[in-house]
């Protein structure tokens, strides 16, 4: 009877709200995040502080944005996992056609020699161009390579370490573009030149800029979280090339923001627990507060804590709930997709996915609120980062932000949350919009090859001539000025 009585007194949502208060960030806290991030970006851009900077701000060597008038056939290669894609993109002014094919990378090749890996990629390239009837045409290629790179030029990227199950020997420390080109030469049956190597944020920006010339920022909010933006070349101190072009796309690698303690003032016990149990403790702390890899686990950590404190499920959990990452990020999106005041999907997740058959209606109300806190904080932090970039750039009248990633695509409210919060945080005279990227990693890579091949023959006609005075650096809101 005591248990029944306890369940009848299930806590009200207001009680849960109080216990979730540390997951709800004020605008004042977000402005402190902006201040600290701005300082971290400036350190990454500066030559004297770059090596020790937390936010590395790698120059991408991409200085020309698409004009929408690009034309011709271009190849793209997108390698980032156990499958990779080859694409043929045909551009015409204002129009494009794209054909692609997915190829597998067998485990024996992933963990074999680098020569075998790139021979396999070259073989697939040969197969694709033969199938598309362009084998005898000289085609520029853009290479999206989603592994940690130290980029030293448009077509020079040094692999720092393998991830995602790859361990091909003889590649770490080498220029992967050169290894691919050597494999192409060994085959001797295709005529392909690798024009550029890039990451997915740059591809997203380029893909959106082809349609909307106001696109100056690219952001990924998916399994991971990162952003790039257009910076004045004079501020890119790590770049020692041609200074005649005014702009440079900078890959911030902002996922590492906070690794130096900058986010300690807003990190919670749940963030610390997720970080401690991750494969890279102490690293990518900003990303771990935003991205889809960790969003569900953050929610689970809160749910488990509240269950142990008898704030949920009468203190009785389930074996599944206690397993790490059992509460998947897709559950967060699914639960929040119900209309306000409806908890059908939440009850379904709790009972069918987590084995919480005893969950009450009030438990569903509370769990949905927890999910909302986790996703709103993620959207708010990402918005603070984007507002920082908008304020840092020249005062363009309108800024388009190219966005890709599963969280942004599939969470029912992420877009609206970001639109509202960016508006609250960035300079009031800026007009902005969020633009969903269509196949940024593929089409964007081809566009990089297109603009580079064009700029090699003529002056840069794609650079913006309407460059206004840069925005003043945001003042650090008290009391954190000294921390910045």
From TrEMBL:
<dbReference type="InterPro" id="IPR022672">
    <property type="entry name" value="Hexokinase_N"/>
</dbReference>
<keyword id="KW-0067">ATP-binding</keyword>
<comment type="pathway">
    <text>Carbohydrate metabolism; hexose metabolism.</text>
</comment>
<dbReference type="InterPro" id="IPR019807">
    <property type="entry name" value="Hexokinase_BS"/>
</dbReference>
<dbReference type="GO" id="GO:0005739">
    <property type="term" value="C:mitochondrion"/>
</dbReference>
<keyword id="KW-0324">Glycolysis</keyword>
<feature type="region of interest" description="Disordered">
    <location>
        <begin position="456"/>
        <end position="484"/>
    </location>
</feature>
<feature type="compositionally biased region" description="Pro residues">
    <location>
        <begin position="471"/>
        <end position="484"/>
    </location>
</feature>
<dbReference type="Pfam" id="PF00349">
    <property type="entry name" value="Hexokinase_1"/>
</dbReference>
<dbReference type="GO" id="GO:0008865">
    <property type="term" value="F:fructokinase activity"/>
</dbReference>
<comment type="pathway">
    <text>Carbohydrate degradation; glycolysis; D-glyceraldehyde 3-phosphate and glycerone phosphate from D-glucose: step 1/4.</text>
</comment>
<keyword id="KW-0547">Nucleotide-binding</keyword>
<feature type="domain" description="Hexokinase C-terminal">
    <location>
        <begin position="216"/>
        <end position="451"/>
    </location>
</feature>
<keyword id="KW-0808">Transferase</keyword>
<dbReference type="GO" id="GO:0006006">
    <property type="term" value="P:glucose metabolic process"/>
</dbReference>
<protein>
    <recommendedName>
        <fullName>Phosphotransferase</fullName>
        <ecNumber>2.7.1.-</ecNumber>
    </recommendedName>
</protein>
<comment type="similarity">
    <text>Belongs to the hexokinase family.</text>
</comment>
<feature type="compositionally biased region" description="Polar residues">
    <location>
        <begin position="458"/>
        <end position="467"/>
    </location>
</feature>
<dbReference type="GO" id="GO:0005524">
    <property type="term" value="F:ATP binding"/>
</dbReference>
<dbReference type="GO" id="GO:0004340">
    <property type="term" value="F:glucokinase activity"/>
</dbReference>
<keyword id="KW-0418">Kinase</keyword>
<dbReference type="InterPro" id="IPR022673">
    <property type="entry name" value="Hexokinase_C"/>
</dbReference>
<feature type="domain" description="Hexokinase N-terminal">
    <location>
        <begin position="16"/>
        <end position="210"/>
    </location>
</feature>
<dbReference type="InterPro" id="IPR043129">
    <property type="entry name" value="ATPase_NBD"/>
</dbReference>
<dbReference type="Pfam" id="PF03727">
    <property type="entry name" value="Hexokinase_2"/>
</dbReference>
<dbReference type="GO" id="GO:0001678">
    <property type="term" value="P:intracellular glucose homeostasis"/>
</dbReference>
<dbReference type="GO" id="GO:0006096">
    <property type="term" value="P:glycolytic process"/>
</dbReference>
<dbReference type="GO" id="GO:0005536">
    <property type="term" value="F:D-glucose binding"/>
</dbReference>
<dbReference type="InterPro" id="IPR001312">
    <property type="entry name" value="Hexokinase"/>
</dbReference>
<dbReference type="GO" id="GO:0005829">
    <property type="term" value="C:cytosol"/>
</dbReference>
């Amino acid at each position: 009877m005591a248990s029944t009585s306890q369940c009848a007194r299930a806590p009200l949502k207001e009680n849960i709200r109080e216990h979730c208060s540390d997951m709800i960030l004020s605008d004042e806290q977000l402005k402190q995040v902006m201040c600290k991030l701005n300082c971290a970006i400036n350190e990454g851009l500066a030559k004297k502080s770059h090596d020790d900077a937390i936010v590395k701000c790698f120059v991408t060597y991409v200085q020309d944005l698409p004009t929408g008038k690009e034309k011709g056939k271009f190849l793209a290669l997108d390698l980032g996992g156990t499958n990779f894609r080859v694409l043929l993109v045909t551009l015409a002014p204002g129009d494009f056609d794209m054909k692609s094919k997915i190829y597998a990378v067998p485990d024996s090749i992933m963990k074999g020699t680098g020569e075998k890996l790139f021979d396999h990629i070259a073989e697939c390239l040969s197969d694709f161009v033969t199938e598309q009837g362009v084998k005898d045409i000289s085609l520029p290629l853009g290479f999206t390579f989603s592994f940690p790179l130290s980029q030293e030029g448009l077509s020079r990227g040094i692999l720092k370490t393998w991830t995602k199950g790859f361990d091909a020997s003889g590649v770490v420390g080498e220029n992967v573009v050169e290894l691919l080109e050597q494999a192409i030469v060994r085959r001797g049956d295709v005529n392909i030149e690798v024009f550029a190597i890039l990451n997915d944020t740059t591809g997203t920006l380029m893909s959106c800029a082809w349609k909307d010339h106001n696109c100056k920022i690219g952001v990924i909010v998916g399994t991971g979280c990162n952003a790039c933006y257009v910076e004045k070349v004079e501020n890119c101190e790590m770049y020692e090339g041609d200074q005649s072009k005014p702009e440079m796309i900078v890959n911030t690698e902002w996922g590492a923001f906070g690794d130096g303690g900058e986010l300690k003032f807003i990190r919670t016990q749940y963030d610390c627990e997720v970080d401690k149990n991750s494969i890279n403790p102490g690293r990518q702390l900003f990303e771990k507060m935003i991205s889809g890899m960790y969003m569900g686990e953050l929610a689970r950590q809160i749910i488990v804590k509240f269950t142990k404190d008898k704030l949920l499920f009468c203190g009785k959990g389930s074996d599944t709930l206690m397993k790490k990452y059992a509460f998947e990020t897709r559950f967060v999106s699914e639960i929040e997709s119900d209309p306000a005041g409806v908890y059908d999907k939440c009850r379904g997740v709790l009972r069918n996915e987590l084995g919480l058959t005893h969950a009450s209606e009030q438990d569903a109300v509370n769990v949905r609120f927890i999910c909302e806190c986790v996703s709103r904080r993620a959207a708010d932090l990402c918005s603070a980062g984007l507002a920082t970039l908008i304020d840092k750039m020249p005062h363009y009248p309108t800024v388009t932000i190219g966005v890709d990633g599963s969280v942004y695509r599939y969470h029912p409210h992420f877009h609206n949350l970001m639109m509202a919060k960016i508006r609250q945080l960035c300079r009031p005279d800026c007009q902005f919009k969020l633009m969903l990227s269509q196949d940024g990693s593929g089409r964007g890579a081809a566009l990089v090859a297109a603009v580079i091949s064009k700029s090699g023959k003529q002056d840069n006609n794609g650079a913006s001539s309407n460059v206004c005075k840069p925005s003043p650096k945001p003042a650090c809101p008290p009391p954190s000025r000294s921390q910045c």
